[in-house]
Amino acid sequence: MDIFENQQRFPFRVLIVEDNEVTQLLLEKIMAQLGFYIIDIASDGSEALERVKEKEYDIIFMDIIMPQMGGIEATQIIRKNFNIEIPIIALTSKKLREDVMICIDAGMDRHIGKPFTWETIYNVVTHYFGDRVPQLEKSSSQNV
């Protein structure tokens, strides 16, 4: 049984910027389990810029290495050209300290290494949305 089966949905808007379809689906499923029901997906940084022009988001999960435009460049443009201060979370297999600092210096708020766990995403979401996210029961093991 899904531990969030009877949870209340809330209208936070999330943008997933990721070129890998499996990772897109995984993040989309996690977000839905956490109560997000406004979930948009962009396959690269240029698509992300178009989405950000069209609507407001509450959080963005941004891959770093993508075709056309990567996450670093897209984040820099979002931070420079749009008047928004929403959390942008880096998603990347690059986990060295230098890689993390490149993400932070570009304007990203956090860095999540791939592969990531459900709990890692949950912890990031609860950091930004607090008690508005359903509490995870410590004895529950969530699989996606």
Task: Provide a concise account of the structure shown.
The protein has helices at residues 21-33, 45-54, 71-81, 97-106, 118-129; strands at residues 10-17, 36-42, 59-63, 88-92, 110-113. It is α/β, with parallel strands linked by helices.
List the helices and strands and how they pair.
Elements: E1 10-17, H1 21-33, E2 36-42, H2 45-54, E3 59-63, H3 71-81, E4 88-92, H4 97-106, E5 110-113, H5 118-129
Parallel strand pairs: 1-2, 1-3, 3-4, 4-5
Helix pairs in contact: 2-3
Strand content: 15-25%
Total helices: the number is: 5
Write down the overall geometry: globular
CATH topology: Rossmann fold
Q: What Rg is obtained from the alpha carbons, in whole angstroms?
A: 15 Å
Q: How many beta strands in the DSSP annotation? A: 5
CATH homologous superfamily designation: Response regulator
Oligomeric state of the chains present here: single chain
Unreliable segments (pLDDT under 50, ≥5 consecutive)?
138-144
